[in-house]
């Protein structure tokens, strides 16, 4: 078990309190690894989360985005409980809730199921006023070739 102490970083990093708090919270709450997932960066502004949700139908999954948080829930309500005697049970058959913290301006653009995998596509849309821009010095615009 690893404990991360970000206290030394608080002394030299100003304005990053939220980031360090999120990292500490994430380290403490790792959701026990169920269901397994991948996070893929497809290009500079597109991402994909892939979750292994074998045994769940689309109607049993719920995807919600609330501000900068993405919540994926799987519930097996309404399924009749069948008494089974397992010699070995390696497939988890339980409800889950997985939370992802999203960066600013990241939104969900789509989701699909394929072969027991749930793919959630995300895109970062930076508003025009947040994009980098050239600043003129003394009212003179700099040229790219200078």
From TrEMBL:
InterPro entries, per the entry: A-crystallin/Hsp20_dom, ACD_IbpA/B, HSP20-like_chaperone
SHSP domain span: 28-140
Domain of life (superkingdom): Bacteria
Keyword tags: Stress response
Pfam families: HSP20
Similarity comment: family membership: Belongs to the small heat shock protein (HSP20) family.
Protein name per the record: 16 kDa heat shock protein A
């Amino acid at each position: 078990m690893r404990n991360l102490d970000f206290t030394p970083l608080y002394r030299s990093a100003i304005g990053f309190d939220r980031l360090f708090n999120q990292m500490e919270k994430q380290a403490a709450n790792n959701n026990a690894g169920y269901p397994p997932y991948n996070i893929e960066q497809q290009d500079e502004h597109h991402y994909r989360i892939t979750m292994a949700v074998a045994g769940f139908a689309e109607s049993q999954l719920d995807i919600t985005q609330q501000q900068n948080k993405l919540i994926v829930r799987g519930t097996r309500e309404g399924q009749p409980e069948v008494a089974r005697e397992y010699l070995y049970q390696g497939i988890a058959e339980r409800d889950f809730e997985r939370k992802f913290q999203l960066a600013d301006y990241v939104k969900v653009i789509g989701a699909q199921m394929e072969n027991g995998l749930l793919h959630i596509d995300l895109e970062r849309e930076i508003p025009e006023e947040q994009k980098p821009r050239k600043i003129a010095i003394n009212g003179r615009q700099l040229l790219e070739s200078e």
